[in-house]
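BUG: 3D viewer hangs when loading the predicted structure for this chain

Environment: internal workstation, default settings.
Expected: structure renders.
Actual: progress bar stalls at 90%.

Input used:
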Amino acid sequence: MEPCHLPLPASMIVRLFGVFVALLLPEFVFCMTRNYTFNIVQHNVTRLCHTKSIVSINGRFPGPRIVAREGDQLLVKVVNHVSNNMTIHWHGIRQIRSGWADGPAYVTQCPIQTGQAYTYNFTITGQRGTLFWHAHISWMRATLYGPIIILPKRNESYPFKKPYKEVPIIFGEWWNADPEAVINQALQTGGGPNVSDAYTINGFPGPLYNCSSKDTFRLKVKPGKTYMLRLINAAMNDELFFSIANHTVIIVEADAVYIKPFQTDVVMITPGQTTNVLLKTKPYYPNATFLMAARPYFTGQGTFDNSTVAGILEYEHPLNHTFNMKKMVFKPTLPPLNATTLVANFTRKFRSLNNPNFTASVPQTVDKQFYFTLGLGSSPCPKNTTCQGPNGTKFAASVNNVSFALPTTALLQAYITKKSNGVYTTDFPTNPPSTFNYTGTPPNNTLVSNATRLVALPFNTSVELVLQDTSILGAENHPLHLHGFNFFVVGQGFGNYNPTQDPANFNLVDPVERNTFGVPAGGWVAIRFLADNPGVWFMHCHFDVHTSWGLRMAWIVMDGPLPSQKLPPPPSDLPEC
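Structure tokens produced before the viewer hung:
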């Protein structure tokens, strides 16, 4: 990757060739350094006839979009003006040799405390498309999120015809209460958290909720044009079905990686996923409006927000005439809430483009294999208290029966300074500690262990990881997100993974490459990735309630032998705990 530079110092070029060349300077730039300032503040927002103070970036909800090109360097100065501790995660950015900028609290950094600032410094390497940023501490991301739009390098184009316009569509989740109070109460009582009051599109719940018709996102389009919708699921705890009435879309990208295009009338998108779709509008003015709606895909056993968010797709009349006649309003038909077979068929349609310009570098051989069970569980109720979890216990969640405890210092700092003693161990189990019929009748003992255990990988290790859902306290689709890497989804299925039979069906040619993927309810998924990025990398369920309960772990990737394979020392303004 070329560093950001000009072929000659700008002052020299101007002196040599005058103003004419100065005007041409943008054409000489390989990439840019882009500076952003994120002031974390509180401001009042009204939704559903309910006004409350929320934490936001620069007083905007959703937060500001970041726009860059592949190869650009980003410097984002985050200044904390509120009482909450804060970190920001740049979700899906590879962060190659910039792990200090990844953002998960107590993993790569201590939080930015009140009155403090920290500059996230990273370069976008080999990525183009849609990602997003969000807070990565407790449940602060409920209101702290925004799009990251990565354009192709200058003079490079999309592998499809350039759309007429591009529009971010970011799904969120709204609580009338303070989300921090919601999760804190749940962790104290051991029960499930109160569900949200609405879903949102670009911050607006839309007309299907009470007292909300004025808070509706409207997308105005022209007939006969192609629009690229940059879909982002920033909801806290819910996978969503999305559809536009009487329209289909063509999916062209997932998690900032181009895919083989395919057409669909329904998109399923998990929290943490991004999907670019092409919407071809009708060739004529239809004299109708069309709802764009989203509602949950839900496979668990608990309570959830069973509501529908809608925006409005409006066609501009070619003559700008205003008709008094009432337009018809069409609503999309969304799948049943628990349409697991439909979701499995949908996710299998995603394939890497894998052409000479955009190859799929799938590890063909594997150095290390891991088998991780995911699911819910319980932890004992403290003495002399009453708990509202299963059978009087507290809800927990785990990977290989380890409910991951976040330390009080940052794992990456402890690793780099070789002060891991008392902070973490590197004995995370490679396989489930006890075998049982993972998707059958669950065991009676649902208690989990609680520890800070990591996996250490030598640089350039090729990894195969099978993620297995369990039926403990209910089988459920778990959107797993890996920081610092993309991974290839080489296989998936229902039931228990069979290590002797299932690998024969792995796709090692053009599997989809993602950073977040739903482990099927009552099933498994196999992923492969190359551990070529030194640092400490979080992996967790992107349902925040499950992350809070402990469905999370971390990988240490050691330095390689070359200078270009080592993590640089921490920046001078890295926050302290």
